[in-house]
Amino acid sequence: MNEKPKAYMQEQSQKIYDQLNQHFKLPIFQDEVGENEIPSDYHFFLLVYGDIQSTKNDVLLQDVYIIYTSQNNAAVDQDVLDIISLINPVKGVSFNRTIKQRLEIKETDDYLDEVTVHFRRKLSYEHQLQS
């Protein structure tokens, strides 16, 4: 069931991963990153595939969050523009908004930037008739 939509989802996910990896060459984690996995320079991506909602046209929308973490990077905003430019053209994916925060690194006076770039992706699914 849903083999074609599942393949489409996998294709979108792979394209998102590949675009980020090829352009930025930073570690990319999915859903969570363990404290001992965080790179010492605090430059990495976290991909989170979130909630799925229905629409009026039997199309589903899934939230996709690309969380970009960077320390001592004066070009964070420019990098975010690149992220949007790389991911928005992926078929069925559209940019929604960003959320930017400055976070203190545990037990230090150092800070890092964390920008959540929120996209939505369109999905379809097969309808089953109840007999």
Helix amount, in percent? Answer: 25-40%
| Name of the CATH class | Alpha Beta
Number of continuous helical runs: 2
What count of domains describes the coordinates? 1
Concise summary:
The protein has 131 residues and is α+β, with helices and mostly antiparallel strands. It is built from two helices and five strands. Strands 1-2-3-5-4 form a five-stranded mixed sheet.
Fill in the keyword field for this structure.
single chain; 26% helix; 5-stranded mixed β-sheet; DUF3168 domain-containing protein; Alpha-Beta Plaits; alpha+beta
Description:
There is one protein chain. The chain starts with a helix and ends in an 8-residue tail after the last strand. Helix content is 26%, strand content 38%. It is elongated. It has helices spanning 3-24, 76-87, and strands at residues 28-30, 44-54, 60-70, 93-104, 111-123. The chain has a single domain (3-123), classed as 2-Layer Sandwich (Alpha-Beta Plaits). Strand 2 and strand 3 form a beta hairpin. It has 131 residues and is of the alpha+beta class.
